[in-house]
Every structure is written in C-alpha cells, then in structure tokens.
Amino acid sequence: MKVLIVEDEPVILDTITAYLKQEGYVCEQAADYDTADEKVALYEYDLVVLDIGLPGGSGLDVLRSLKKSHPETGVLILSAKDSLDDKVQGLELGADDYITKPFHLPELNARVKALLRRRFFKGSNTIIFEELEINPSDNVMKVHGQPVELSKKEYGLLLYFITNEGRVLTKAAIAEHLWGDYMDLADNFDLVYSHIKNLRKKIGQQGGNDYIKTVYGMGYKFSRL
Amino acid sequence: MKLLEKNNRLFFRFTALLLLGGSLLFYLAINWIIRHEIDEKLEVNRLRTVELLQEGQPTPQFSPIVEVLVFDENKGTEPAYSDTLIYDPVEKEAEPYRQLISYTAIGGRFYQITTRSSLLETEDLMLAIGGCTLGLALLLFIGLYWLNRRSAQRLWEPFQQQLAALKGFSLAQQEPLELASSGIFEFEELKSALQQLTEKVRTDYRNLKEFTENASHEIQTPLAIIRSKIESLIEQEHLGAEQMSGLETLYEAANRLSRLNKSLLLLAKIENRQFGAATPVSFNDIIREQVEMLHELTEAKGLQLRLELSEAQIVPANRPLLEILVKNLLENAVRYSQPGDTVSITTSLGKITFSNPGKAAVEHPERLFDRFYKQGNHRPGMGLGLAIVKKICEVNGWEAGYSFREGKHEFSIIVEKSSNDIS
C-alpha cells in the first residue's frame, strides 16, 4: 500500500511517516501545497493523509485535483479542532474520513486501516489474529471458531488493539477512541481498565491466549506471544 | 440625587429666600411711608386746630378726627403719636386709628388737642399691595422654576444621549462607539474623550483576544509534537520503569494542556461567532443522544439518569454547539454526583434543567460560570465547561442559571422567557 502524507509541520510529518512505515506502508511525504499537488498529479496512491492548512495553498484544493485525476484514492483529512467547516467541506469534496488535531498515532493508524479496508476489501475481509477471528462488517468475534459475545465497546477495543498490534496504546488514546469527547469522564472512572479485564476474561473463557500486556502505568500492548 | 433635581433645589431655595426677603422689605417700606404720611397729616390737622383756637374761634370738635379738651392748668408734656382702637357706632366695631395727642397754651388756657386718622383704609391698602406682591412673586417663582427646568433639560440632553450610548456600549461589539454631536463645547469635549477612551479599550481588548487566540493556535502544533513523540518513545523496549513513569507524567500533562487548549480555542470561536448558521434543532433529541453516549459512564459510577422531556424543544441553533452545551452540563452533573445519586434532565416550555443532588449550594454561585472557577475539593475538571455553556447561551440569546433547591443543584437554560415560568 502506498501512502502520501501531506503535513506542513516537519516533526509531525516524520512521526506519522515513521509510524505508518512500521505498519508496512510505502510512505511518501509532501510538506507544502506545490509538492503535494505535483505528487498527486504524477503518481498514484492508495491513500493520502491530507492536512488542510498548508503553506502555499489549501489542502482542499489538493483534494479537488486529486479527486479529478485519481478518484479511487482514499483520503483522510487532518483538520484543526476549530475548523469545522474544513471538515464538512472536505467530506463533501470526497474525503473518506477526517481526524482532528491533535490526534493519537494509534488512532490515525486505526483510521487508515479502516479506510483502506472499506475501500479495497469492501469491508468484507475477516481479520485473523492467531486464534482470534474478527469480521468488522458484522461485529462478530470468534475464538477457535467459537463465537464470543462482546459488547460494542469491547469489540471496538479489540479491533483497536489488533489494528495497532505490537504498539503501546496509552489509556488516554483508548479512552478517546472509545468515548470520544467523554473521555475525561471515562478516564476518571477507570473504564478502560474494566473493559480490558472483561475482554481478557471473555477470550480466556474460550481458551484464547492473553495477548494484552500492561505497559507500566502508561497503557497496554497487544502482541503475539 | 439627580443633577436636575439638585440644581432645582438650589434654585428653589434661593428664589424662595429672595422673594420672602424682598416681600418683607417691601412691606416695611410701604408701611413706613404710609405711617409717615399719616403722621404728617395729623400734624397738619393739629396746626390748623391750633390756628383756629388762636383766632378765637369756638373749640373745634369733630370726634373722633379732632377732639379738643380744655384745662385750667398745664397738663402738657411732649406731643405723642400712638395707635388706638375706637368704637365706631355705625360699623359697630372697634376700628384702628392713629392719633397725635399734643398740648398747647393759648390765652392763659390749656388745650389738649387730639387729632386722629383711621387706619382702616391703610390696612386695606396694605392687604391689596401684599396680595399683589405675593401673587406676582408666586408667578415669578413658578415661571422661573419652569424655565430653569426646561432649559436645564434641554442643556443636558446631549449628555443624556451620550450616557445612553455609553451604557449600551459593549467591548465585543464590532463598531466603534457612535455619539451624536451637540454643538456644545463641553459636551463635544466629553464626546471626543469618550470616543478615544472606548476606542482604546476596544483595541486593547481586541489585541488581547487576538493574542489569546493566536497563542492557543500556536500552542497546538508543539503540543501535537510532544504528544506524538512521547507516543513513539514509549514504543521503545529498553525503557525502564523510572523512564516510563516520567514519560507518563509528561504525557498526562501534555494531554491536559491539549484539552485546555481545545477548550480555549472553542471559547474564542464561539465568541467570534465562527460557527455556522442556526438551523432548527431539537433539544430533546440532542439530550437523548448525549445521554446514550454517556450511559455506560453513568452506569459505571452507579448513577441513575432520569429524563423528563415533556415538550418538543425545537430551537434555532448551531447543532454542534448545542451538543457541546448539553454535553458540558451533563458532564458537570455526573462529575459532581455521588454513586447512587439520580441526575435528572427536565425540559419544559422554554426551559431545560439539569439537576443533581448535593449537600449545599456552591459557595460563589455568581462565579460558577466564570473561566477556571473550580468548586472546593472535587476532582477537578478543566474549569471551562460552564464558561463554554454560558458563552453558547450568550450567542444564542439564552440565559444560563444556577440555583440550589431542596438539596439539588439545578442548572437551567432559559431559551425563551414565558410569563408562567417564574416559579
């Protein structure tokens, strides 16, 4: 999968690139409007991660010309928290998803994967992780072929873990992923912990392994044994 | 005391004193002149009587105007004027007279000559003069009072206008303060001073606001860098517990700062009215949505949520803003409740109320909606949630209020004023 990352802040650009490279994507960078516009015109990408505020022009214009030349390319918009209009306009112009800054890298990764899954596998591909089997299209999880009932949040949590396999997910990133704007309250109630406990229990009951490791006080990591 | 009133009071006192003093002086003067005239007349009558007696004419008697008494010996002293009352058989009452009693010796005989003049006419005259004076003074007084009042009112009119304009002045307004010209030097000076002052205040306020906004904007990127760098750092396997705990503290602080920054930017954006146009939105729908999203959290805390959504509350508003409003109020109620409490949300005509049980009213209800105001020893929030609520109400022309009733904190949003909603 080939991804173009358009972002004017070099440190953030590099961090995103490094993160996505580790996930096995081929990444290219553009730090301003002209470079971005040129690249989307010349090359073909599976996905463009697009910042709106760019030196030399608007990311929305890049989106416009991209949709003309390569309509099949997926687009994930990075928008500043306070520019609701960019978000709406971006989606109207054909962007697939948006993520507001500042974001957690695992969140970006999850969005990228979900987007590519929707776009290129029509959402029907089953994710298999060792003995776990997940089908995002019908919210079913199987352990050793046996269906396990998960709550919506537990399901979301597991999917978030598997998409970010081998990564440390902080409690804040998980809370934000699952509860959005109510993450502060969720954080206060230690809900992340209780959901992880339940998830472990449910997988364990069906003879599944515990892939969730606690990383000091920071968060959790889902990885192969 | 109003300026006009004070001015009038001063005028009133001065005029009253002047008129009173003037009248008294006038009375005394007139009285003196008349007395003087009468006394002269009495003297003349006396001299004529003496003349008649010297000519050997019979003793003149014309009671009570002229009375002559004859004595053999001299009883005389100096002539003396005095006032007296004499019974008038015609009018059947005692009437006031002025009299001059004098003694004269003519041809070896002694005469006591009394000449009198009635004071009745004088009294009538004085009464008439007094009445006229009083009437005139009263007329003058009323006229002057009215004139003074009118002219003062007209004179101060530009001032009143300027004051009204100043009262309506708001820091956040886009246009500079407009004051009408009066053509009066002092008021023109006041006007230019006011305009300079308000313009300066407006500029300062705008600069300060811009600074806050710009600062918040500029903080975003470094914050994002800090956060993402920490997130990549913790991926590294070789970090020990100590480094991790340090990173955790950093990460939490960065997250907190990031949330704070988001809230500040949101406040600035609401203040600048950068949110899209209002569309009809159902308050009840939004409350249901937010409660649904919060459901799991309230359950985890052991809270009951009670909804009493009676009337369809369709208000013209920006939907995302309304969601934030409801979310913040809900979050506030949940944050400050204890496990087992019931949080209730009630909508009635033009009013939405969020209530949760509490021990006592907050200490400073008037500061509740201020930025960064936090109450006591609760688990601290950002201190901006209610400030955002207030700001959203402000831009929509609603009213946010707090009261403590029957052991419950009540936050209410009054969307429209209705007369039957006072209780």
What's the SSE blueprint?
The complex is a heterodimer of chains A (225) and B (423).
Chain A: E1 2-6, H1 10-22, E2 26-30, H2 33-42, E3 47-51, E4 53-54, E5 57-58, H3 59-69, E6 74-80, H4 84-92, E7 97-101, H5 105-121, E8 127-129, E9 132-135, E10 140-143, E11 146-148, H6 152-163, E12 168-170, H7 171-179, H8 183-188, H9 191-205, E13 212-215, E14 219-222
Chain B: H1 3-54, E1 66-71, E2 80-88, E3 93-106, E4 109-118, H2 120-167, H3 185-233, H4 241-271, E5 279-282, H5 283-301, E6 304-309, E7 314-317, H6 319-335, E8 342-348, E9 351-357, H7 385-396, E10 399-405, E11 408-414
Parallel strand pairs in B: 6-8
Antiparallel strand pairs in B: 1-4, 2-3, 3-4, 5-7, 8-9, 9-11, 10-11
Structural class of chain B: alpha+beta
Give the N-to-C terminal Cα separation of chain A. Answer: 27 Å
Spatial order of the strands in the main sheet of chain A? 2-1-3-6-7
Could you name the CATH topology of the largest domain in chain B?
Heat Shock Protein 90
Give the number of domains of chain B.
3
Gyration radius of chain B, to the nearest Å?
48 Å
